[in-house]
Amino acid sequence: MENNLHFFTHDRLDLVVKYRFFKGLEEGHMPADEEQMYAKHILARTRGVEPGNSRKRNIDTYVAAARDLFQSMKVAGFDKNKPIPVDQWGRLRDGAHRLACATVLGLDVELRYLNKKHPIRQWGIDWFLANGFSKQYVNSLLDDLNIITGYPNQAGIKRAPKTDKRLFV
After folding, report:
1. Quick one: pLDDT at residue 110?
2. How far is 35 from 67, CA to CA, in rounded Å?
3. At a CB cut-off of 8 Å and minimum separation 6, what does 32 contact?
4. What is the CA radius of gyration of the chain?
């Protein structure tokens, strides 16, 4: 599982959003605002469509696919025949949902290292702020990042409210 955690950084706050979504599924209750924030970040990143994946053609099918992934991994574990691609810079090229889900479930992932010409875009603080997420929400992601990776902040672990009054602005 240690392998999973080093991908959780301030440059990949999208992993924290996905982690929160899967954590809600694991705990058996999904706060409405958590699913809304998950959907908001997916819409901002992909407009709800993942190229090459016929299952993810709008936000509803995207959310359904994430729920299906959780159920599948909960029952069968991580599919080692589908390793998560990582480039020579140590950045995920794909598989963020699988990585976040596996982390929630305490599963190790299989990685496949690739050589690419260019680093992949990151989804960190600046991306979230530029896409209409409030500073309060981004700070709560950073707080959760510290909790997930085992680095509590100096003031103690205090989590900002997850709500964001600027949803879908």
Report:
1. 94
2. 11
3. none
4. 15
Give average pLDDT by consecutive 10-residue segment, the chain, 169 residues.
84 96 91 88 85 77 93 97 91 93 96 85 90 95 93 54 39
- Which of 73, 9, 18, 70 shows the shortest CA–CA distance to 41? 18
Provide the 8-state DSSP code for 92: B
Q: Among positive and negative, which fits the CA dihedral 42, 48, 52, 55? A: positive
- The predicted pLDDT at position 14 comes to 96
| Three-class secondary structure of residue 142 per DSSP | helix
Structure tokens, 125: 């603080």
**What does the buried/exposed string (b/e) look like for 135-147 if buried means 16 or more CB atoms within 10 Å of the residue's CB?**
eebbebbbbbbbe
Nearest in space to 3 (alpha carbons), one of 134, 95, 103: 103
